[in-house]
UniProtKB/TrEMBL annotation:
<dbReference type="Pfam" id="PF00072">
    <property type="entry name" value="Response_reg"/>
</dbReference>
<feature type="domain" description="Response regulatory">
    <location>
        <begin position="2"/>
        <end position="116"/>
    </location>
</feature>
<dbReference type="InterPro" id="IPR039420">
    <property type="entry name" value="WalR-like"/>
</dbReference>
<keyword id="KW-0804">Transcription</keyword>
<dbReference type="InterPro" id="IPR011006">
    <property type="entry name" value="CheY-like_superfamily"/>
</dbReference>
<dbReference type="GO" id="GO:0000976">
    <property type="term" value="F:transcription cis-regulatory region binding"/>
</dbReference>
<feature type="domain" description="OmpR/PhoB-type">
    <location>
        <begin position="124"/>
        <end position="218"/>
    </location>
</feature>
<protein>
    <submittedName>
        <fullName>Response regulator transcription factor</fullName>
    </submittedName>
</protein>
<dbReference type="Pfam" id="PF00486">
    <property type="entry name" value="Trans_reg_C"/>
</dbReference>
<dbReference type="GO" id="GO:0032993">
    <property type="term" value="C:protein-DNA complex"/>
</dbReference>
<dbReference type="GO" id="GO:0006355">
    <property type="term" value="P:regulation of DNA-templated transcription"/>
</dbReference>
<dbReference type="InterPro" id="IPR036388">
    <property type="entry name" value="WH-like_DNA-bd_sf"/>
</dbReference>
<keyword id="KW-0805">Transcription regulation</keyword>
<keyword id="KW-0238">DNA-binding</keyword>
<dbReference type="InterPro" id="IPR001789">
    <property type="entry name" value="Sig_transdc_resp-reg_receiver"/>
</dbReference>
<dbReference type="InterPro" id="IPR001867">
    <property type="entry name" value="OmpR/PhoB-type_DNA-bd"/>
</dbReference>
<dbReference type="GO" id="GO:0000156">
    <property type="term" value="F:phosphorelay response regulator activity"/>
</dbReference>
Amino acid sequence: MRILLVEDDARIAADTGRALEAAGYRAVPCANGEDAWFLGDTEDFDLIVLDLGLPGMDGLAVLKRWRAGGRTMPVLVLTARGTWVERVEGIDAGADDYLPKPFRMEELVARVRALIRRSVGQATAVLTAGRLTVDTRTMAVAVDGVPVSVSPLEYRLLAYLAHHRARVVPPTELLDHLYGDEDAREANALEAVVARLRRKLGPGVVETRRGFGYTLAGTDAC
């Protein structure tokens, strides 16, 4: 799952990025409003964490431009502006949630999990697809109730497929949401991750739809 982290305070950005990565997300940092607007307008993210007090372009203006342009990704506003009037203004501008500074990282990550779940129509933190369960709170994976040890990259792939279990996910989309710009993004690297998962999970869990992409068994994805 890929998150755009828009925060100009280097310490907060680093701490938040580490917390998101530890929770199984891929955090893409950004420190000014103009770059944030461009990235959010031209690339796909599962969620955006957006500070309002940004250089270049105020975060509220960035949010309004995204929504005016039809961008619908969930946005969690993260800011020191904590009055109820400012919270209402942010939500009316298109924010999905609002977390004032200072904040606990555990709360931020919990809100991120909830917003991503709701954005794809999932109600609970434990996602089920056929024999597979993925617990997004603990990053635990099980098949038929038996825990399976997976790497962080393997977890991110399964979590993305579980969040989008109503459809077949194209390889290019998985590559975009699994890897950072500095990582290998070749299709054969993705195939290698899927092959390792199949050895760990057993047959009939991760399916390939030739010419379309990947999905989880037991989901009636189309």
